[in-house]
From TrEMBL:
Similarity annotation: Belongs to the ExbD/TolR family.
BP terms from Gene Ontology: protein transport
Coiled-coil segments: none
Gene Ontology molecular function, alphabetical: transmembrane transporter activity
KW Transcription regulation (keyword) present: no
Cellular component annotations (GO), alphabetically ordered: plasma membrane
Pfam families: ExbD
Protein source organism: Algicella marina
Name the UniProt record assigns to this protein: Biopolymer transporter ExbD
Transmembrane segments: 15-33
Keywords: Cell membrane, Membrane, Protein transport, Transmembrane, Transmembrane helix, Transport
Presence of the UniProt keyword Lipid biosynthesis in the record: no
Subcellular location: Cell membrane
InterPro entries reported for this sequence: ExbD
Length: 125
């Protein structure tokens, strides 16, 4: 009839440990996101590459190769094939992605052109 058991006080759960964990995860992911940005590619320094002059220089990135003015060639020969078409390394090159080429493929070709000393690249659809 009588309930002689000790009455327990109900404790409210503390939110402090959960908030600490959330902030630690937030800091971790903010720092981890910065590690992948180790190289930046600048396109058309100065905001514009100027007027297009000279012979056509259309580079097309495909899923499995590179085309220069519609002619397939290995990536290693791209810089030497562009040399006779250029008056200066600052002449505009037109780079286009097609036939399922990934963004990474386009970036690889941009890096190749940058390493070869070409400074003006226009990306088109």
């Amino acid at each position: 009839m009588f309930d002689l058991a000790e009455q327990r006080l109900r404790r409210r759960p503390s939110l402090t440990p959960m908030i600490d964990v959330v902030f630690l995860l937030l800091v971790f992911f903010m720092l981890a996101a910065r590690f992948g940005q180790d190289h930046a590619i600048t396109l058309g320094a100065g905001g514009g590459a100027g007027d297009y002059t000279g012979p056509p220089r259309l580079i097309e990135a495909t899923a499995d190769g590179v085309l220069l003015n519609g002619i397939a060639m290995p990536e290693t020969a791209l810089a030497s094939a562009l040399a006779p078409l250029m008056q200066a390394p600052s002449d505009v090159l037109v780079l286009r992605s097609r036939d399922g080429a990934t963004t990474q493929r386009v970036v690889d070709i941009l890096m190749l052109l940058d390493d070869a000393g070409f400074t003006a690249v226009a990306l088109v659809e």
